[in-house]
Amino acid sequence: MNYRHIYHAGNFADVLKHAVLARLIEYLKLKDKPFRVIDTHAGIGLYDLSAEEAQKTGEWLGGIGRLMGADLPRNVAPLLAPYLDAVKALNATTNVMLYPGSPKLSRMLLRKEDRLSLMELHPEDYETLHANFEGDFQTRVTHLDGWLALNAHLPPKEKRGLILVDPPFEEPNEYKRLVDNFAKAWRKFPGGVYCLWYPLKNTAPIREFHEALFELEIPKMLGAELTVKGHREEGLTGSGLIVVNPPYTLKGELDILLPFLKERLAQDRFGLSRCWWVRGE
Ligand code: SAM
């Protein structure tokens, strides 16, 4: 396990993932009934961007750094507010130094009746995550393989849940593993809202991944992708999310949000965004 999210915290991929995560949580809060957020690959929860690792890559400068303090169009500002307000709450100025990973962001948005389950396998990152949530009775932190946890923790006892699956994609078969494990999880909890993250890279088997998802014959799968640089570039050129059982409002929101994020975050003239139904009703 070499992946450490501190090198990437707050980058363009985190912006898309966390903005959508916040929208999903806000939607779940519209009903009185409690829900649980399950984050199978949690990371350390909260990132100090002044740390040597984050400074070394400076990736957040091309992500959250391009949004904080920016003038937002009137139709975009309310969509980003839950996410950006959380980032602002951690920082005294628009110069972001503390960045909330998915665990901290989720926790900041939960009501007192909602719960958060976090899994992290990296021993050191687990310790940091655990320390970050010490004494928080709404949050359970487990040193466990997130893929196993996905199976073991479903369905949640609240019967309402949001499951974020955000693996590091260190293994070559990670796209297939994501499809297979999601399929198993969905069978145990078909009513859950799932948010699956995946990288866009020039060598990635994206077409096969989308086809494999389609072939699951699971209804209501929304895809959202944001590409920030040309497909021939090395490394991460963009990222995508598959949202299963999305709120009925999400497609319309993403049709506004994604073009804005593309304008703001594109690094060359090959920026692209799209939102489409991988499978409809
Ligand atoms: N979800 C986090 C966020 O948005 O702030 C970022 C998570 S990062 C992309 C992926 C994390 O998964 C890393 O911290 C890594 O140590 C952890 N990890 C890798 N394999 C794992 C596994 N099998 N089970 C649980 N965690 C794992």
What does it look like?
By secondary structure, the chain is α/β, with parallel strands linked by helices. The protein has a single domain (5-279), classed as 3-Layer(aba) Sandwich (Rossmann fold), CATH 3.40.50.150. The protein is built from nine helices and ten strands. The protein has helices at 12-28, 52-57, 77-90, 102-109, 123-132, 146-152, 174-188, 206-215, 250-265; strands at 36-39, 46-48, 98-100, 115-119, 139-142, 161-165, 193-200, 221-227, 238-244, 272-279. Strand 6, helix 7 and strand 7 (193-200) form a beta-alpha-beta unit. Helix 1 packs across helix 3 (77-90), helix 1 (12-28) runs parallel beside helix 4 and helix 1 (12-28) packs antiparallel against helix 9 (250-265). It is globular, with a radius of gyration of 17 Å. The model has no long low-confidence stretch (mean pLDDT 96). The chain binds S-adenosylmethionine (SAM). The site of S-adenosylmethionine has 20 residues, from helix 6.
Which descriptors would you attach to this protein?
globular, eight-stranded mixed beta sheet, about 35% helix, Rossmann fold, about 20% strand, alpha/beta, about 280 residues, two-stranded antiparallel sheet
Query: What's the overall geometry?
Result: globular
CA distance, first residue to last residue: 38 Å
- Please state how the strands of the largest beta sheet are arranged side by side: 5-4-1-6-7-9-8-10
The total tally of domains equals: 1
* CATH C-level category: Alpha Beta
Poorly predicted spans = none
Structural class label:
alpha/beta
**CATH homologous superfamily placement:** Vaccinia Virus protein VP39
CATH topology, anyone? Rossmann fold
Q: Which percent band covers the strand fraction? A: 15-25%
Count of beta strands = 10
Ions, cofactors and other ligands present here are:
S-adenosylmethionine
| Structural Rg | 17 Å
Q: What's the story with the biggest beta sheet?
A: 8 strands, mixed
List SSEs in N-to-C order.
Answer: HEEHHEHEHEHEHEHEEHE
Helix content: 25-40%
Architecture in CATH?
3-Layer(aba) Sandwich
How confident overall, as mean pLDDT?
96
